[in-house]
Amino acid sequence: MRSSQTRTAVLGALSIEPMTGYAVREAIRGTLGHFWSESFGQIYPTLAELERDGLVERQGGARTGSSAFALTAAGRTELRALLAEPPQPGAPRNGVLLRLFFGRMLGPDACAELVRDARDRAEQQLTALAAARADHDHVEHVEDSPYWLLTIAAGEHAARATLAWADEALTTLGALTAGEAGPAPSDD
């Protein structure tokens, strides 16, 4: 059985409107993308499993790629049950922090570059979220609007926190570069 979180994401996307597998992927990538991702390789097997379980039904063409999937009554019930479960915590995996933790091996200048890249990504995320907020004014699903805005706000807060952390980290790394906070990395 697929991850219940993958099932939740796919059923949730289909709760908005019937979609093809490709449209589900695009909805998850484009709409949920600032806080959730699913690989293309997860979506089609999940759709097949949901169809087999009677939670979605095919509408339209016979080919998988051309037919839309719609939630059944059982699918809506399952989605509500999945949404009521506590979220499954994911193990943290942050490549920037992994590298910074062992930053003595890289040196402060290389670490500063990593932090500047993280800062740039946070600024890009804020720009994308501002566009999502602006696009939100034209959303067709008004009843979903307050909930969607909550996710946009969470992304904005996270990006702003990253910017504040990056500025602080760059100050610390600048002091290391200037030799104010300890010895330079050794080759040992």
TrEMBL record:
* InterPro entries assigned: Tscrpt_reg_PadR_C, Tscrpt_reg_PadR_N, WH-like_DNA-bd_sf, WH_DNA-bd_sf
SUPFAM superfamilies for this protein: Winged helix' DNA-binding domain
What is the designated name of this protein?
PadR family transcriptional regulator
- Species name for this entry? Cellulomonas cellasea DSM 20118
**Residue ranges the record marks as coiled coil:** none
**Which Gene3D superfamilies does the protein's record reference?**
6.10.140.190, Winged helix-like DNA-binding domain superfamily/Winged helix DNA-binding domain
Q: Which residue intervals define the domain Transcription regulator PadR C-terminal in the entry?
A: 93-173
Record-annotated Transcription regulator PadR N-terminal domain positions:
10-80
